[in-house]
Amino acid sequence: MTQTPSNLATLGLDAPDASALSSVQLLDVYRTMRTIRAFEDRLHREFATGDIPGFVHLYAGEEASAAGVCAHLESGLDTIASNHRGHGHMIAHGVDVKAMMAEIYGKSTGLCHGKGGSMHISDLSKGFLGANGIVGGGPPLVCGTALAHKIKGDGGVGVAFFGDGASNEGAVMESLNLASVWNLPAVFVVENNGYAEATAANWSVSVDNVSDRAAGFGMPGVIVDGTDFFAVYEAAGEAIRRAREGGGPTLLEVKLTRFYGHFEGDQQTYRTRAELKNAKANMDCLKHFRRRVTESGLLTEAQLAEVDTQTAQLIEEAVTEAKAAPVPDPAELLTDVYVTY
Amino acid sequence: MTQTPSNLATLGLDAPDASALSSVQLLDVYRTMRTIRAFEDRLHREFATGDIPGFVHLYAGEEASAAGVCAHLESGLDTIASNHRGHGHMIAHGVDVKAMMAEIYGKSTGLCHGKGGSMHISDLSKGFLGANGIVGGGPPLVCGTALAHKIKGDGGVGVAFFGDGASNEGAVMESLNLASVWNLPAVFVVENNGYAEATAANWSVSVDNVSDRAAGFGMPGVIVDGTDFFAVYEAAGEAIRRAREGGGPTLLEVKLTRFYGHFEGDQQTYRTRAELKNAKANMDCLKHFRRRVTESGLLTEAQLAEVDTQTAQLIEEAVTEAKAAPVPDPAELLTDVYVTY
Amino acid sequence: MATRKISYREAINEALVQEMERDSNVILIGTDIAGGAGGEGKDDAWGGVLGVTKGLYGKFPGRVLDTPISETGYMGAAVGAATQGLRPVAELMFIDFAGVCLDSMLNQAAKFRYMFGGTAVTPLTVRAMYGAGLRAGAQHSQALYPMFTHFPGLKVVVPSSPYEAKGLLAQSIRDDDPVLFFEHKLMYEVTGEVPEESYTIPFGKAHVVREGGDVTIVAIGRMVSLAELAATELQASGISVEIIDPRTLSPLDLDTILGSVNKTGRLVVVDEASPRCNLATDISAQVVSEAFGDLLAPVKMVSPPHVPVPFAASLEDLYMPSTQDIVNAVKT
Amino acid sequence: MATRKISYREAINEALVQEMERDSNVILIGTDIAGGAGGEGKDDAWGGVLGVTKGLYGKFPGRVLDTPISETGYMGAAVGAATQGLRPVAELMFIDFAGVCLDSMLNQAAKFRYMFGGTAVTPLTVRAMYGAGLRAGAQHSQALYPMFTHFPGLKVVVPSSPYEAKGLLAQSIRDDDPVLFFEHKLMYEVTGEVPEESYTIPFGKAHVVREGGDVTIVAIGRMVSLAELAATELQASGISVEIIDPRTLSPLDLDTILGSVNKTGRLVVVDEASPRCNLATDISAQVVSEAFGDLLAPVKMVSPPHVPVPFAASLEDLYMPSTQDIVNAVKT
Ligand SMILES: Cc1ncc(C[n+]2csc(CCOP(=O)(O)OP(=O)(O)O)c2C)c(N)n1
Ligand SMILES: Cc1ncc(C[n+]2csc(CCOP(=O)(O)OP(=O)(O)O)c2C)c(N)n1
Ligand SMILES: [Mg+2]
Ligand SMILES: [Mg+2]
Q1: Of D254, A96, A169, A45, whose CA–CA distance to C99 is shortest?
Q2: Among candidates A70, A8, A30, which has minimal Cα distance to A291?
């Protein structure tokens, strides 16, 4: 899986100062974001062919959030709970892209042997607790993984990714209070893409910013521009360092936009064409990153283009192999319900 | 039931200016608070004899909150959802004291025919949705009654009473957001008596005041001294008027103390003797009220003493009648599960 | 004269329209049952995640309420509103989400009338999608109606066709008790004859879908259509099947089932819910304790295995009870 | 040689102590399981609402965690911690409160292993009080274990004595799957012989409490003691009763029950849970479909009526299954 983006933390990215990132590191960041984009763009096309079963929620447009946060996490030590829109979080955390694709196709070679699907992809070996089909399901789980980090004293941090809509779930708000009361090494990343299904955050969230609620739970609330990898990288680095050092939880609000519908099939009539057009034209974190690193001369167009090619090839292989892979053995219907029964 | 405190709103108390209260009105306020105190003190003694079944949570010490809030509510129009510590809310809202006592004894003459008990006393004819054995159960219900007031345009307001401990339930926090998003005529009264069972609010609530959370839900958060009826009366009056006029919900935090244990039988070892002694000596809303109205010459000791006598007699009758009342007919076991089945 | 054919989805939408026209106290509450709140684009952009409530937002201004994603809050609100004379129809998008808001049904709506000594009336209808087959995975494919049937104070309705859906939903809304109304997510496209005028189907009255003399098959919701296919197949091999659709699980029309078993002497119960403590066991046990003497053979239960619902289509198809499973249960 | 007698409460407390001493990964989470957090008075002021966890806070610093009243948060946290190698024992004070935190059990803990293709291990134990008789009213007196038995992925344990409580709790904590452990609130004062040393009782192995030849009584939890009284009474009138305590409802030891019915030909199931879709119907139906030929008489089910639990002592006593109800079920 050499072309799979390696988990960025293994590159030792724990300095919140983005300007300290080397070109090697930046190239890896780019590979991560590009891989997510290519993965999602391809799924969008494949879903239209009817080959992909179930509900699929794409992360395209939100890449800088996953990349900027996961850059500070160590695979196998830190823990992550994701939501229904989890492909990007997994890829940024170094989960096997081909095994993810196979899972989405419901094949035996998938990370969950095809028994989970897009909404339940997980890789516990890497501390990735899985996508979650229950909105607000992740934050309570992260209170538990963070508690485990604290009790074991392993220096790990628990990170929960959830959306603006999820921020109105009692599960999320109870978790913020609990994490604060227990002073847990946790970071709550609310990816505010402006919508929960067809409902706008400016209607469903009774305050200007989700992060404005942090004060009510005795923790810092931070807002960051999710179209700017570097901004996310620094803000997340700071929150994660605080958590690691015993400083307690942070509510980090990443403002971003999603390029595709809530799930595949959504016509997005609740958004205007202009809004969508503007999002893709002016809120594309990949474009922003590309411009920044080339203009500053840190990376060349040629280097980036090579990554584009490699990434495209990886996704092509992932889809081809997923389609060719066998479906789960019928016996799998009855296995792995219990450890013993 | 002439001696039962009439619902104060019938006296036309809607001006938040407490100085406008006539002596007749003040005497009725006193009767309300005294009735609650006498009711709870007597239950404390009766429980010790073993005559009273189940869990009983006493409101003694918190009277000014119920009296100050309910003074602005109209029986049969406005709606109230209470919690497990609900006796005071009921009495202040004009619920029949003798029928309450009978219910607590599990008798057929009780408000719920003995099928509810202390934790489930209700009087829907008066808009009182009942005590609730589920912490945080009330606020969502009040979002519904307030929604009904709004849709019917009847000018009614929904009031939820809950505690500091309940404020950490997702049900309560979701309700605050929902009430704000729907702009409901609702008032959320959090009675912060410093403890949830044996756990101190300064530990379980991750911020200085529960009302500090109001900002995160786009509503005013107000703190008031629950040992001062007049302060509660004015603050509640303001919040209820705002709600009535379509101004939306308020989170009103009433700081007070409870004189007895969490429930009868609780030894309160989590509190120091000094703390309890101080509470009864210096945080008694009845003493404060009595001093204020006599010193200001609004009421005489004689008038108050007469109410004390009448109240004592009412409670004496209530207990005597409750003890003498018949238990529910065995047939009641199977009735009133459904309207039709 | 044949009545017109419409889909299960349209039948439910029509029942909502007619009840809202009939009674201004009927309101709808749910996440994105309209859609578009706060957005710059269209209002009523969704009409529900699968379009069941499409168009109602415009038809009934102020009576179709979208919500934040706060099931505990809005389901509780629906209960509270119901105690005040409104007749809320709350949508719980997937019944699986009962996990985040069960209290409103379990400890509030279901118990008010009894706890309050008969003084409460809570005319609440909860609509929810249930069932496997949409490749939606373990958290979006459960049946869960056995759990609600277990709770005293609730009524449980599972329509098996567009006709049943319209009439039973109208009755659910007019009913004065809290009702859980289960819609199978695979049936929205199923069409059938449905009268245009408003009508109700009473609770507690089973429907004899097909008469027969050799064996009684009790089937629930979507399983009724599978039982009909099985019956046709069995007819070919000379086995005459009687099919009973209970329509409502609570109350349950045991008499009709007992009457049929008295005639056939054989019982097969087909239930899509997980096998432990489900309706197959509930109905089988009640029949055995009431009519042991009528039974000529062991009661058979056709249910999925005791496992979560798998995602992969190949496994999910194996998971769901099939026509063949029913045929086998009857034959063996 | 007789072992010492201790109470059901002490047996549970002892199992917790011994498991926490044995394995440092065992932690306790619950509301006021210690008590006194933040207060000026004593720590460990409560040790649980009924004193079951008394003393553990002092014995195991940092491993007994009180919580805000946030069941969704802390039950979910217990699930998350379990996936990371800890063995949390979470207390849900009353099982009725599952209404506010069911998702953690229904959609998370129960499904991880299957959804994640066998890669997850979630050794969680949830302790909860269940049952009627304490005059606690409709929201604090339910059984609800049928609902958890219905969910694939969970194990359900209901101890019927101090001995069973200690051994089954130890096994629950050592078990690698999520377990719901039900403690009957009327039994905490019940005493019985309990070995001092640590021991476990395996899941899925029923206990034949009493041997007999005429009728098989399967009883659950507190109902076992009532069945024993009934058996003694029936013995007097010459009826020999075999009593089986399943101990665990999921997994269920059906073989032992079938073996007994094969011998007696008669089955009575006594279940304190509400009657629809409960264990009485579940066990009865399974026996009938597996051993119809062995039955000489209709299966009898002894359960409360389909109503919420009433508050008044007089009504609650009528509500609960009684020894007399069991005797009558056997005799008629
Ligand atoms: C408890 C629960 N309620 C509702 C849903 C249906 N649902 C799935 S995703 C979603 C919107 C989530 O919005 P947000 O949290 O903003 O995340 P986004 O989809 O925007 O990334 C909803 C309502 C669910 N899966 N679980
Ligand atoms: C959902 C739920 N969790 C826990 C309990 C147990 N319980 C009953 S009262 C109580 C404390 C409530 O504290 P607070 O809200 O401050 O009210 P107070 O008793 O102080 O008036 C608890 C934990 C419950 N009844 N319901
Ligand atoms: Mg969103
Ligand atoms: Mg309190």
Answers
A1: A169
A2: A30
Number of residues that this document lists for chain A: 341
Distance CA D267, CA D216 (A): 5
Length of chain D: 332
CA distance A243 to A41: 34
Whether the CB of C106 is below 8 Å from some CB of chain D: the reply is: yes
Q: What is the pLDDT of residues B238-283, one digit of tens each?
A: 999 999 999 999 999 999 999 999 999 999 999 999 999 999 999 9
**Interatomic CA distance for residues B150 and B154, integer angstroms:** 7
| Residues 229-288 (B) with a CB less than 8 A from some CB of C | none
Ligand 2 atom 12 nearest Cα: B196
Task: Give the type of residue at A104.
Answer: I
CB A120 within 8 A of CB C137: yes
| Option in A130, A140, A145 nearest D84 (CB) | A145
List the beta bridge partners of residue D180: D126, D156
* Helix or strand holding residue A294 (H, E): helix A285-295
> What is the spatial distance between Cα C284 and Cα B281, in angstroms, rounded to a whole number?
65
C254/D172 Cα distance (integer angstroms)? 39
Residues 3-42, chain D: which have Cβ within 8 Å of A? 27
Chain A residues in contact with B206 (beta carbon < 8 A) = 176-177, 180-181, 217-219
Q: Show the beta-strand stretches assigned E in chain D.
A: 5-7, 26-30, 64-65, 87-94, 125-130, 155-157, 179-184, 191-193, 207-210, 215-219, 241-245, 248-250, 267-270, 300-302
Q: What does the CA dihedral B311, B316, B321, B323 come to, rounded to 10 degrees?
A: 140
Among B84, B101, B75, which residue's Cα sits nearest to residue B161? B84
Helix (H) or strand (E) holding C161: none
Please tell me the pTM assigned to this model: 0.97
Is B6 a residue whose pLDDT tops 70? no
The environment of the single-atom ion ligand 3, i.e. residues with CB closer than 5 A, is: A 163-164, 193, 196
Which are the contacts of D328, defined by CB distance < 8 A and separation ≥ 6? none
Tell me which chain A residues have a C-beta less than 8 angstroms from the C-beta of C36.
198-199, 269-270
Separation CA C260–CA C266 (nearest Å):
9
Q: Do B197 and D35 touch (CB under 8 A)?
A: yes
Among positive and negative, which fits the CA dihedral A6, A7, A12, A17?
positive
Which amino acid does the sequence have at A145? T
- Do the beta carbons of residue C164 and residue C7 sit within 8 Å? no
Instruction: Please compute the mean of the pLDDT values over residues D119-145 and round it to a whole number.
Output: 98
Q: If you measure CA to CA, which chain B residue comes closest to A248? A: B206
Hey, what amino acid is at C155? K
**C82 vs chain A: nearest CA distance in angstroms?**
22
Question: Rounded distance, CA B28 to CA B36, Å?
Answer: 12
Residue of C nearest to A204 (CA): C68
Measured between CB atoms, which of B53, B272, B332 is closest to D40? B272
Tell me the ipTM for this assembly.
0.97
pLDDT 10s digits, A246-276: 999 999 999 999 999 999 999 999 999 999 9
Instruction: Tell me how far CA of residue B13 lies from CA of B16, B62, B73, B187, D327, in angstroms.
Output: 8, 20, 9, 17, 62
C residues 158-177 near D, CB within 8 Å?
none
Residue D248 forms beta bridges with which residues? Answer: D157
For residue A262, which atom of ligand 1 is closest to its CA? 19
Could you tell me where the DSSP H helices lie in chain B?
A: 23-48, 63-70, 87-92, 97-104, 138-152, 170-181, 201-204, 229-244, 273-282, 285-295, 301-324
Q: Measuring CA to CA, which residue among B335, B125, B127, B318 is closest to residue C115?
A: B335
**CA-nearest residue, atom 12 of ligand 1:** A196
Q: How far is CA A215 from CA A174, A176, A178, C224, in A?
A: 14, 10, 14, 54
